[in-house]
Amino acid sequence: MWRSTLLCCCISVNTLAQTGPGGVGNSTTNFLWLSAEHDVTVPSVGVSRWGDRSGNGNHALQATANRQPLLTPGSFNGYPAITFDNDPAAADLLTIADNATLEGMNGLTGFAVFDLAAGTALAAPRGILSKRVDPGAAQNAYAWFLWQSGSNLAQHLDIVGTGNRISSPGSHAINTVYINSFTYHGATPTNSQDQVLLTGNTAVANGAETSTSIPNYTSNLHIGQLYGHTGAAGNTTRFNGRIAEIILFNTTLTSVPRTIIHNYLAAKYGRTLASLDLYIQDEELNGNFDHDVAGIGRASSTDLHDDAQGTGLLRINNPSDLNNNEYLVWGHDNGILGAWGVGDRPSGVEGRWDRTWRINEVNASGTAVNVGAVDMTFDLSTFGPVTASHLRLLVDSDNDGNFADETPLSGATDLGSGRYRFSGVTALTNGVRFTLGTTDLSATPLPVELVAFNAEALAGSVHLNWTTASEQDNAYFTVERSTDLTTWEGTIEVPGAGTSHQPLSYAAIDRTPHPGTNYYRLRQTDHNGTTSLSDLRAVDTGHAVEPGWTIQPMPFAHEAQVISGSGPLLEIAVHTLSGQRVALPVRILDGLALLDTDALLRGTYLLSVTTSAGRSTRRVVKE
Question: How far apart (Å, rounded) are the C-alpha atoms in residues 83 and 93?
Answer without folding.
Answer: 10
